[in-house]
Design goal:
It is a single chain. This protein folds into two domains: 5-91, TATA-Binding Protein (2-Layer Sandwich), CATH 3.30.310; 100-135 and 145-152. The chain has four helices and nine strands. The chain has helices at residues 25-41, 74-91, 114-122, 140-146, and strands spanning 13-18, 43-44, 47-48, 50-56, 60-66, 100-105, 108-113, 131-133, 148-149. The strands form three sheets. The chain has a four-stranded antiparallel β-sheet. It has a three-stranded antiparallel β-sheet with strand order 1-5-4. 32% of the residues are buried.
């Protein structure tokens, strides 16, 4: 069942999928259309999952689920993965390469790979006021507290 991101419990589980290319408006609309169908049928332990799909900063597809105190069953997690694969197949975006990292420098979002960005941070080539996005957060609370990180203290450094 579709629920707004802000309406979900702060302990709700989230998955962040990163696109190395900026998601354009046509792709965004297609993702949201697919998301509506997915969320209407998403269940865990035979109950509807309160969830949402958001597109953030033009590079991140975030899926959130409030399992109402229960853990999500394996089928619900598998459905999430199938949904992401459906997006990839339908739109042609690569959302499952965990080596893709997005950071913001001078107001511009830049796509990099993990190893290159790690070297850039270590060598001091990334400005201190830049933002490195952490796609490894797993709850809305973690998202609110540590999705955006300073290069010196980020999950890569």
């Amino acid at each position: 069942m579709k629920t707004g991101f802000a309406d979900l419990n702060k302990d709700s589980r989230i998955w962040i999928y990163t696109s190395p290319e900026k998601i354009n408006e046509s792709q965004r609309q297609e993702i949201l259309n697919l998301a509506d169908k997915f969320l209407k049928n998403w269940q865990s332990h035979g109950k509807d999952v309160d969830g949402t799909v958001e597109i953030i900063e033009g590079h991140f597809v975030i899926i959130a689920a409030d399992s109402k105190g229960d853990t999500l069953c394996g089928r619900a997690v598998d459905a999430n993965v199938r949904f992401v694969k459906e997006i990839q197949d339908s739109i042609g975006l690569n959302l499952t390469d965990r080596m893709v990292v997005i950071y913001k420098q001078n107001g511009e979002l830049i796509s990099s790979d993990y190893h290159t960005l790690k070297k850039e941070i270590e060598s001091g080539n990334i400005e201190t006021n830049s933002v490195v996005y952490n796609p490894l957060v797993s709850t809305i609370k973690e998202y609110n507290n540590s999705f955006e990180q300073a290069p010196a203290n980020c999950w890569i450094a």
